[in-house]
Amino acid sequence: MGNDLNKKKKKIGIITFHNSYNCGSMLQAFALQQVINRLTGRKSEIVDFSNEGQQKLYSVRQPNDSLKNVIKNIILAPWFKRIARNYESYERFKKNNFRLSNFPIHKSADLSDADYDIVVAGSDQVWNITIEDGDDAYFLPWVKSAKKVAYAPSFGAKNIADFADDPIRYAKYLKDFSCLSIRERNGLEWLQKLTGRSAELLLDPTLLLKQDDYAKIESHELKLPLRYIFYYSPGYSRDINKLVHKISQKYNLPVIAFNTKTFYIKGMQFSGFKLPEIENPSTYLQLIKNAEMIITTSFHGTVFSTIYRKKFWTVKNGGMFGSDDRVKTLMYLLDLEDRMIPIEFDDGFNYLKEKNYNKYEHLLEKEQERAYTYLKKALVDRRI
To answer: Is the per-residue pLDDT at 158 higher than 90?
Structure first.
């Protein structure tokens, strides 16, 4: 009986990119923890892991160890205080909205599953082994006795079989999961070829919550124009900047972008674009909610545009037509393909055209049901 009591006291652990100063990453972590807590009636905790690569990636200034970093630091030097203020606001969001493990961990060798009976890996690009903050820890080799569950991780369009020095090692990690799922269609095929196992194709966890759930964490602090375009892109390429500038001129709408570092490195202020006074997941939601139009190349930019039922356009770029089907899978699953536009400006096109969300609502409900069924089996049904 004593052993049963000890077992009941164990928690569900989640390991994901919750420490990234990136709105999509933080909001998917928030959503997954909320969904797991509601579904199981238990308090999960996010394993407060962040490797050295992630610490470096989201530092205010980069080490002057390359010419590229030296140039970046010179460009950004006038904005270091602003960047630091933004990063502090991300930290406050994390502190106020996540239930974390007791202390931060920066080395995978220090991870332990002693406190958990289930560990969930995902969502986001935790299985992308090519990124600076990628880590084998997200494949759960450190989990020795707890049940291993994957919830909609992404390979980030990078097939392990093509990019890993030792694909067999990753195949071994993945075969050890009790429940496997993935976020993109190409990932299903890669996973099956690598492990010989099938997996579920599941929604990003942000789509398992409703707009009302996000209303609780929205900001109201930004002073915004009555009408504006919210432009959100990981890279802010020159060609897409030109497209957005032309759309803003056509409709006489100001453009608000995001991500101070990229904004100034790309010189976007010279296009007349603006930044919000502060950047964090809460102000990101406020910007989406109140925008007249959203233009994005981002997976989560697309996701939250649909959650708020906005007029939005996802700009086609080279990656979306190759192996990178992160956005294409989402568009296909939820009847959003009519909201993809080419990078070339079309003066005759109605960029203020409304989106009919009727079919989306039906498809979303169906995909949500699949996701909840998977999670119930993985987290509640002890026979698996």
So the answer is: no
